[in-house]
Amino acid sequence: MNILPGNLRFGAGKPVKRLEDQRLLTGKGQFIDDKPEDGALWLHVLRSPHAHAKITSIDSKTAAAMPGVEAVYTGADLVADDIGTIPTLAVFMRPDGKPMTVPPRRLLAHEIVRYAGEAVAAVVATSRVAAQTAAEAIAIDYEVLPSVVDPVEATKPGAPVVWAEAPDNIVAAMSYGDAAKVEAAFASAAHKVSLELVSQRLVPSAMEPRSTIAEIEKKTGRLILHVQSQTPGSTRDLLADAVLKRPKESIRVLV
Question: For residue 110, what are the CA distances in angstroms to 44, 53, 106, 167?
Answer without folding.
Answer: 18, 11, 8, 20
